[in-house]
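Narrative of activities, Objective 1.

The group set out to show that a structural description can be obtained from nothing but a protein's sequence at a throughput compatible with the screening campaign. Below is one input-output pair from the validation batch, recorded exactly as produced.
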Amino acid sequence: MTQKKVSPSDATVAGTLPPSYEEANAGCPGYCYSDGAFLWDDENIRRVFVRKVYSILMLQLFLTLAVVSLFTFYDPVRFYIQTHPGLYSSFSLLFLVTYLMLACSGDLRRTFPWNLLLLFVFTFSMSFMLGFISSYYNTRSVMVCVGITAVVCVCVTVFSFQTKIDVTSFQGLLLNLCLVLLISTLVMGFLVPFGLVRV
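Output recorded for this entry:
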């Protein structure tokens, strides 16, 4: 049995030709596929994504900095944490559970209120573990490093909100490295001569 070859004109008459690119993307912005999925190649999509990531990272760093500072420099909290080591185990278990939930459940980490709640619990439990460990040591140098990281993250977040430069490119990487070098130099220039942090 042979099949008849269909010419484009016959297919148009029969209505079997696939839609053109313009027809498939009608009602969809130029940066998405016909099914509504976004293209990563578009700079606007990448910029919005980077802004969200840096904003979330900045909030996580400030929460970690606050918890570690509280556990390190406030004596009643430090004494309570050091006399109740079971809290570390419970927060380690909470960290593991939220980590597995975020890593293994794609639907859960993409559902709006649950993803932020799990991320907050994940960050708080990790901050608690870091604060517990840092309460046993003189952690000024660790606090300086966390502070420098937080300041760099704030600078990059502010930069990504107001610029049209792609911070995921080589220029963005160079900007990040220069910011780390500049802020580290400024902080160490003020702290090391006064003996606040040992080199």
